[in-house]
């Protein structure tokens, strides 16, 4: 089950392990099992090095931080589904039925004039104060999503109403504000999560299952985790116990600085099994600053569609390793629509930062200021080049980007000519364009048929796809394709990199073995 809010959601389980972004309902757990921890040290054979010990106590550290951590309670009015015609009609029962009295009592309580009856649902989460003078509190977006009312509960039992300053669904961060004159606030600061090492001790404070002020300790288990929850995943993984209700709470280092915002766990049961994830401070702090200043995010935008660089693609481009992000298409009207970056280029550095894989690029671009001129290092036809790009704003272009964000799939068709790597090819002309419904803007060589069990079929190439270029050289006829494949074989290449276009011009790259 996947939970993105604190409201109960029932879905069919499709896997034994669930990824849970967790805000808790107000109910406490039905069963609590208390187990005694093993106190005897476990001997380590053949260990000559002195072993570092965990912190003797975190009591002083927790005592100085716990007042900055808050519980967040939300309520939402949920209306009945559209189409509900009102009260449920009482079923007909035989005269004298023993169920008549039950039905009369239950259905008689309904309001006959009430259509689409509504009810309130509540959820609980955590948060922490980052600015005591301004009353600024940080939490997860899924904790407060769709809430009608937000209430902040402090460690001393006092409560304040909160208003939403801004939220970001892409990173699951929300910023709240309370009146600092009504309660003395204690704030905490963000640390440098980039310096966090695997094995460092960390402490989580939050509101699991409604138990406010709960402190747990663990270590950093891993860094830079991608759990496929958003475009900028770069989570800190920890084994510090975090559960439903911990969402939005801080993950502290041993200096008392916030290095992460607890957000999700992986669990087969919904409870902690020692695999939790926190948004790193280096990502969160920039988002929070923008939400405070503008009430929204203002991310940099490069205007390209990208895909991973596989070993096959790297080999076909003459690259020594499969690093970087392959440009699969350029968005019209974007910052690089002027031709500074082309489809088929591989971006390996952006503004001085390495792009090791396809997930790195969206994150470093989004963290860059709108309007900044940056150096982008690309690999084009086997050679490195540096181009300068002035970034646009992602939020201004998202509607346009969505139109270009589909990876093209071919359409069915028929007809003719040269056979290469299991594909039958034909020239693009008015007749073939009309037959396959191909846009006038698409240029290249038409694939009219794909043989079953061929290398092309195995890569899901279909009749109606158009070959735009091969190994970054444009082709315009079936003979061009055959000649280019033959040249690559003569050069000792094992794979051919094809840029394919759908009938509407959406691009994707495919590598085909030529053995």
UniProtKB/TrEMBL annotation:
Annotated residues for binding of substrate: 142, 172, 245-247
Domain PDZ, first and last residues per copy: 291-382, 421-515
This enzyme's EC code(s): 3.4.21.107
Chief place where the protein resides: periplasm
GO molecular function terms attached to this record: serine-type endopeptidase activity
Signal peptide (residue range): 1-23
Xref: InterPro entries: Chloro_Bact_Ser_Proteases (IPR051201), PDZ (IPR001478), PDZ_sf (IPR036034), Pept_S1C_Do (IPR011782), Peptidase_S1_PA (IPR009003), Peptidase_S1C (IPR001940)
GO biological process, one term: proteolysis
Alphabetically ordered keywords of this record: Hydrolase, Periplasm, Protease, Repeat, Serine protease, Signal, Stress response
GO cellular component, one term: periplasmic space
Reaction(s) catalysed (UniProt annotation): Acts on substrates that are at least partially unfolded. The cleavage site P1 residue is normally between a pair of hydrophobic residues, such as Val-|-Val
Localization in the cell: Periplasm
Keyword check for Hydrolase: yes
A Pfam short name: PDZ_2
Keyword Hydrolase in annotation: yes
Annotated catalytic residues: 142, 172, 247
Family: Belongs to the peptidase S1C family.
Name listed for the protein in its UniProt record: Probable periplasmic serine endoprotease DegP-like
Source species: Phyllobacterium brassicacearum
